[in-house]
Design a protein that fits this description.
Belongs to the adrenodoxin/putidaredoxin family. With about 110 residues, the chain is an alpha+beta fold. The chain is built from two helices and five strands; from the N terminus they run E-E-H-E-H-E-E. It has a five-stranded mixed beta sheet with strand order 2-1-5-3-4. It is globular, with a radius of gyration of 12 Å.
Length: about 110
């Protein structure tokens, strides 16, 4: 089970074990972490789970889909490493992934 580090806009951090097959969003919601609102429940339709994936962790995930890219265009604070956490499915190689929760989700 990979350990994922969530970094919050205030600089605080929380490390959480998240089972393979779940998403970075699932790990946050199931552990009641702040900042990832996930209004659509993970169906890639709201962008309230916007995160910045640490550059060292980007290779752990598939490339964003066209749908995800379109949603991110409307997200506040868009960066090159912006992703929707509902689309980041964890596998065995994701140990140590770090994401920063975008300020202003929801």
């Amino acid at each position: 089970m990979p350990k994922i580090t969530y970094v919050f806009p205030d600089g605080s951090q929380k490390e959480v074990d998240v089972p393979c097959g779940q998403t970075v969003m699932d790990g946050s919601v199931r552990n009641n972490l702040p900042g990832i609102v996930a209004e659509c429940g993970g169906s890639c339709s709201c962008a309230t789970c916007h995160v910045y994936v640490d550059p060292d962790s980007l290779a752990c995930f598939d490339e964003p889909t066209h749908e995800e890219r379109e949603l991110l265009e409307f997200a506040d604070g868009l960066q090159e490493n912006s992703r929707l956490s509902c689309q980041l499915v964890l596998t065995e190689i994701c140990e140590g992934v770090r994401v920063t929760v975008a300020d202003g989700n929801g």
